[in-house]
């Protein structure tokens, strides 16, 4: 009986901890927002932030390294996201359908898998990822 309890406990703990131990250092986050007037791509990979603003000859590319406090804040926010549920998060607004907002999405590459949100309005992400998106957007220097 003890061995059965031990096996069940081990299985439940192993399954339960897999998502909560999501390691941002092993992930690549790509946030894109585009419309006729804007094109933004933010890529975060292991404390390195790359920001592309614009298209063609007008495009600017900026790269920076995050401070430890910026990184830790993002790590905490990343751990709250369920990667398997990412594509089910509902968009709170639909202004992009009538050109009222740029179309945005978040793609996360983690441990060989790619997770992507449904499209949402730039500036109004799904509630579940709102803190992470707000923090990413605050890091870019425009």
Features:
about 140 residues, disordered N terminus, about 30% helix, globular, single chain, alpha+beta
Helix percentage range? 25-40%
Radius of gyration: 18 Å
- Number of helices, counting only DSSP H or I runs of 4 residues or more: 3
- Indicate the structural class: alpha+beta
Strand content: 25-35%
Structural description of this entry:
The chain is α+β, with helices and mostly antiparallel strands and about 140 residues long. The protein is built from three helices and seven strands; from the N terminus they run αββββαβββα. Strands 1, 2, 3, 4, 5, 6 and 7 form a seven-stranded antiparallel β-sheet that branches. β1 and β2 (about 40-45) form a beta hairpin. α2 packs antiparallel against α3 (about 130-140). The longest helix is centred in the first third of the chain and has 19 residues, at about 1-20. The radius of gyration is 18 Å and the shape is globular. The N and C termini lie far apart (about 60 Å). The relative contact order is 0.19. The model is unreliable at about 1-20 (pLDDT under 50).
List the helices and strands and how they pair.
Elements: H1 2-20, E1 27-34, E2 39-45, E3 48-53, E4 60-65, H2 68-79, E5 103-110, E6 113-116, E7 120-121, H3 130-139
Antiparallel strand pairs: 1-2, 1-5, 2-3, 3-4, 5-6, 5-7
């Amino acid at each position: 009986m003890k061995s059965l309890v031990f096996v069940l406990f081990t299985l439940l703990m192993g399954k339960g901890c897999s998502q909560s131990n999501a390691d941002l250092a092993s992930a690549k986050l790509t946030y894109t927002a585009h419309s006729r007037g804007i094109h933004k791509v933010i890529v975060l990979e292991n404390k390195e932030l790359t920001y592309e603003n614009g298209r063609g000859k007008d495009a600017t590319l900026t790269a920076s390294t995050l401070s430890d406090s910026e990184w830790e804040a993002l790590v905490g926010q990343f751990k709250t996201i369920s990667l398997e549920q990412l594509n089910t998060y509902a968009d709170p607004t639909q202004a992009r359908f009538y050109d009222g907002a740029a179309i945005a999405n978040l793609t996360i590459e983690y441990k060989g898998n790619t997770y992507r949100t449904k499209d949402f309005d730039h500036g109004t992400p799904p509630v579940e990822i709102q803190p992470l998106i707000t923090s990413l957007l605050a890091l870019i220097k425009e």
